[in-house]
Amino acid sequence: MIKILLVDDHKIFTEGVASLLLHEPDFEVVGECQKVEQVKDFLKKISIDVILLDINLGGESGLDICKFIVEHNPSIKILAMSMYNDESFITRMMKNGASGYILKNTSADELLKAIRTVYQGKLYQSAEVLEVILRGLSRQKQQERSLYQIRFTRREKEVLDLIAKGKTTREIANHLFLSEKTIETHRSNLFSKFDVKNVTSLLKIAAEYGYV
Fold first, then answer.
1. Which of 76, 82, 143, 186 gives 20 to 30 Å between its CA and that of 109?
2. Domain around 169
3. Which residues partner with 52 through β-bridges?
């Protein structure tokens, strides 16, 4: 028997899912929660195998409670069930320990399949969610390729090398016999080419891709 806890801030939704699962002989819905504190109380009292977890819990974060559950009850499998098909939500939920991610417009058959899959210790993403993940990976690879092909002016490379050596804008200006305003322009161009907003990120990526 798979013991399931439903977590969503809309009670009408949890009631609907509970009604659907009621007809499955290997499922037992042990509770329905609308708030994070209710979830924590259930974890202390009742044995749970799978939690169907929404991301938005009425101002509280399903992302955070997902991480909490995984850290304190690692045997419980979490299946995210959300209306959000945004890549950032999907990847953050999976990084926080969810075993699966499906959308609320999924079919009943897919919901049942997803629950049984994560219960068995496997990962599950619906076709639409998987497509979002694959698009993100493709975009990331394209960004990585572009980072390997950055072209600099001679001055930009000199400024980058001096930044890597810990030189300040004034020190770089004095070293290259240029104005501080010109150095700031070169620095701004480097930020733009590496798509970063600060020196720490600039140096991290420049080192990672072998530019310094």
1. 76
2. 150-208
3. 6, 79
